[in-house]
Prior knowledge:
Elements: H1 9-34, H2 45-99, H3 106-129, E1 131-132, E2 135-136, E3 163-165, E4 189-192, E5 195-203, E6 213-220, E7 223-230, E8 233-240, E9 244-245, E10 252-260, E11 265-273, E12 278-279, H4 281-288, E13 296-300, E14 304-311, E15 317-324, E16 332-333, E17 344-350, E18 359-364, E19 372-375, E20 385-388, E21 399-401, H5 402-410, E22 416-426, E23 429-438, E24 444-450, E25 455-461, H6 468-474, E26 486-490, E27 498-501, E28 509-512, H7 530-540, H8 556-613, H9 617-643, H10 647-651
Antiparallel strand pairs: 1-2, 3-13, 4-5, 5-11, 6-7, 6-13, 7-8, 9-12, 10-11, 14-25, 15-22, 15-26, 16-19, 17-18, 17-20, 18-19, 20-21, 22-23, 24-25, 27-28
GO cellular component, one term: extracellular region
Organism: Polynucleobacter sp. UK-FUSCHL-C3
GO molecular function: structural molecule activity
Amino acid sequence: xxxxxxxxxxxxxxxxxxxxxxxxxxxxxxxxxxxxxxxxxxxxxxxxxxxxxxxxxxxxxxxxxxxxxxxxxxxxxxxxxxxxxxxxxxxxxxxxxxxxxxxxxxxxxxxxxxxxxxxxxxxxxxxxxxxxxxxxxxxxxxxxxxxxxxxxxxxxxxxxxxxxxxxxxxxxxxxxxxxxxxxxxxxxxxxxxxxxxxxxxxxxxxxxxxxxxxxxxxxxxxxxxxxxxxxxxxxxxxxxxxxxxxxxxxxxxxxxxxxxxxxxxxxxxxxxxxxxxxxxxxxxxxxxxxxxxxxxxxxxxxxxxxxxxxxxxxxxxxxxxxxxxxxxxxxxxxxxxxxxxxxxxxxxxxxxxxxxxxxxxxxxxxxxxxxxxxxxxxxxxxxxxxxxxxxxxxxxxxxxxxxxxxxxxxxxxxxxxxxxxxxxxxxxxxxxxxxxxxxxxxxxxxxxxxxxxxxxxxxxxxxxxxxxxxxxxxxxxxxxxxxxxxxxxxxxxxxxxxxxxxxxxxxxxxxxxxxxxxxxxxxxxxxxxxxxxxxxxxxxxxxxxxxxxxxxxxxxxxxxxxxxxxxxxxxxxxxxxxxxxxxxxxxxxxxxxxxxxxxxxxxxxxxxxxxxxxxxxxxxxxxxxxxxxxxxxxxxxxxxxxxxxxxxxxxxx
Length: 653
């Protein structure tokens, strides 16, 4: 090996060794300070990939354990309420058996029935309030979105504002002194000697949807009575008209409210009396009750409203109501719409509107103004134009707009005149169902039961003459938030199948089905199981063999039959609840086993991951000691190597 100065190989070797020793020492310090063997991908690329996959599995498993804990808590909430329902059903069985006792009087049996009704109500309310994190556990779970849904209970289907109006020809009846129907000198002033009384009529907004009709005032002394049909029932209410005593020195005005609260009608009476004059309440009441002058009061306005919406097993989503506002297949057109028509049969087709090209057959009977019937073709809507293909419908015209036919048909009080459609998606399938609307009689209710969707809508007609065609048209009007069609928006849907992840993979889950233990057949507390609805029907619904239909005039045999039916219904309901509680109990046991298994899996996975990624402190401290010694040795050797070129100086002496 030559002796040189510029290249000190020994120093280079020592520098490399020192660098390697420092790198190894730094790695040992990092591992010991972090506790991880793999701190970056360069430490162990394959090991990092394996450990991260295992961490994903661990995270999923641990979250599943928490999910199953929530599921167990949910089941416990449901089971506790089912236990309460079961206790009430056991009490119902005791009462049904007690009621069968022939020694009881009718009044005692009625007391038993009342307790059974109360228990039935409490079963429904218990089911309705049993929820976990907003999820209904013992009721249907379907709810109408009261913020965004157009179709809501209480919505009116007419656009006429409720108001007090003229009751007949001439200046008769009671009038409001303010608002759109204001009047002056038309009977709204009560004038007697020395006094002048004016009145204004206001309507209670909460009752205005159900108070259209004609009401009559009568008086006995200062007692003023309002009589009329309200919400389908004949009613009357009496208020007292107070005396108004004048001031000793100055005229004075006294206001008093004649509030017929049962009808939602309030008469605000302002009486001005001269000095020293007394106006008696009897005199003012008599003025109100003057026959043919002002004793009748007519309220016109809302004819039909949505009285109930029932959802059963409806999935969350938006469902759209639309309607035909015209003549349907087989509909009847009054003769007045085709005056001067020539008898015969005509083929017509639609030349404008939504049904362009569709054909139908019109038959005209009679020489001048027969009845026209439409058959074949499709349902028609406003804007379609019917044009005669052969001959003429009238002696001077060959076309007739459907709007004219609709207007005529709206005045036709017989037959069905409109259809309502509900569109939406059911189980991923686009679905449409059509129902026919009938003319509504006074205080009648018709149900639009869209069974394909599980949505039922009750429409109540407060006055007679509400046309099905009008209803169909109003459903698509601006009454419902300005949309082109009325919408039923289900905000939650039926939570009948709840899934809880039971493993690291997304396809590992346990399903828990919620129940509907309510006993009603319609309305808010509508149930879905026949065992529970039969129980409710036997207790609270009028009908042959049911307790709710019985009274003091029924025979012992009738009572015993009803209690026997109720006891049988109780037995079936008890078996239903017991079976469901057993199912929930077995599911809780299953969840416990699954949770234990997942905890074991998580422990083993974490142990395996630890062996890959965590620092072995015993081995790493040995490497740290070795690294420290190697660093010191390399430093010392580097110092020696750096001194070796000094030997050259001795050769130069």
